[in-house]
Amino acid sequence: MIPLLEVILPVFLIIGFGFTVAKIGWFTSSSVDGVMLFTQRFAIPCLLFSAMATIEIDDHFNFLLLLSYFSPSLIAFIFGTLIGRIILKYSLEKCVVIGFCCLYSNALLLGLPIMEQAYGAHSLGPNYAIIAINTPFCYALGIIVMEFVKGRGSGFLSTVNKASTGIISNILVLSILLGLLVNITDIFIPDAINTSIELFVKAAIPAAIFGLGGVLARYKIGSDFLPIICITVIALLAKPYLGLYFSEIADLDKNSIRAVVLTLGMAPGLNAFIFANMYNTGTRIATTSIIVSTALSIITLTYWLEKLV
């Protein structure tokens, strides 16, 4: 148990430190915004570009790996949405937000550092393959379903076009595509530029998870306990169990199974709040689910790490 906690605690201590200093006012809201701006527009794009430029595409962009990850994610989205509608009796729009919270795992800000702490940087290939697809898949699914539910007059094809444009123009997606282009075409990058990129890469994860703590400090826990319980159980337990089942059926290697299960077992990311805020519905559910499930994931991730030894 102690070695497992030593894997998880450094990550959550940095998140907790960011949360604490922001909560007591030692780190202002504008400072948090500055850190998140630096990480999301510069450091993390450099991390993703570097990873995609050097990843062994044939080894890690495995159809069965991606199927083992995204099938449980899709099932979680469907079940979360249906539970919200049939059992909790929420509006269709709020049900889609619940489904999105079940769908979107924090693969980047939590999944990468915990996987690296547990198994080393050499183990991250499958994680980068998942991350490359995760945001486009989740946003495309969420936006299309929400627009369909809301029945806006702009038309379904127009909605798909807007969703596609928004996804392709995302800086993280662009950095992934650019990195893959460099990888496939074997473009030479001078050593000085590579070294500069690596300096950004080293700063990306520590700064991002510190900033994540600062962002979480802004939100308050709401009173919508039933949907939070639903999201937490699906996100932290049901989804990774499904991932383990699909991975074993697909006969993935041990490292890929770890990447699938641990990433599926991460709490919902901040994109769950961003998605809810886009439609001005279910924001309290989204923020509370992020805070509660992130805290509880200390326990569940310890369980999954022990199970995947």
What does this structure look like?
This protein is mainly α and 309 residues long. The protein has a single domain (2-307), classed as Na+/H+ antiporter like fold (Up-down Bundle), CATH 1.20.1530. 82% of the residues lie in helices and 0% in strands. The chain starts with a helix and ends with a helix. The relative contact order is 0.18. The model has no long low-confidence stretch (mean pLDDT 87).
Helical segment tally? 14
User: What is the highest CATH level, the class?
Assistant: Mainly Alpha
Gyration radius, to the nearest Å?
Answer: 19 Å
Low-confidence stretches: none
What distance separates the N and C termini? 12 Å
CATH topology: Na+/H+ antiporter like fold
What is the averaged pLDDT score?
A: 87
Concise overview:
With 309 residues, this protein is mainly alpha-helical. The protein has helices at residues 2-23, 29-54, 57-60, 63-87, 92-103, 107-119, 125-150, 156-168, 171-185, 191-216, 225-249, 254-264, 270-278, 283-307.
Fill in the keyword field for this structure:
globular, Na+/H+ antiporter like fold, 0% strand, 309 residues, mainly alpha
Indicate the topology:
Blueprint: H1 2-23, H2 29-54, H3 57-60, H4 63-87, H5 92-103, H6 107-119, H7 125-150, H8 156-168, H9 171-185, H10 191-216, H11 225-249, H12 254-264, H13 270-278, H14 283-307
